[in-house]
Amino acid sequence: MERTRFSEEQIIRILKEHQAGMTPAELCRKHGISDATFYTWRKKYGGMDVSDAKRLKALEEENAKLKKLLAEQMMDVSTLREMLTKNF
């Protein structure tokens, strides 16, 4: 996963500045981000608090671990089935 310059807390603070009345162009200039980055953040973190963002990150990490475990189990099952169908 790529490392970003901004933490979730900073992103949410920037989005709250937008809700307070700053335009996206002003925010992008002030913080040195692109318009696309701003709108991506707004889509992902819009309306969240810091605690919500931390919970989201924890859930995403847990989901990634579970997907990895599932993939490993499916590979094991596939290998076992393949070995059972071979003639000895």
UniProtKB/TrEMBL annotation:
GO terms for molecular function: DNA binding; transposase activity. GO terms for biological process: DNA transposition. It holds the Pfam family HTH_Tnp_1. InterPro entries: Homeodomain-like_sf (IPR009057), Transposase_8 (IPR002514), Transposase_8_domain (IPR052546). This is Transposase. It comes from Nitratireductor basaltis.
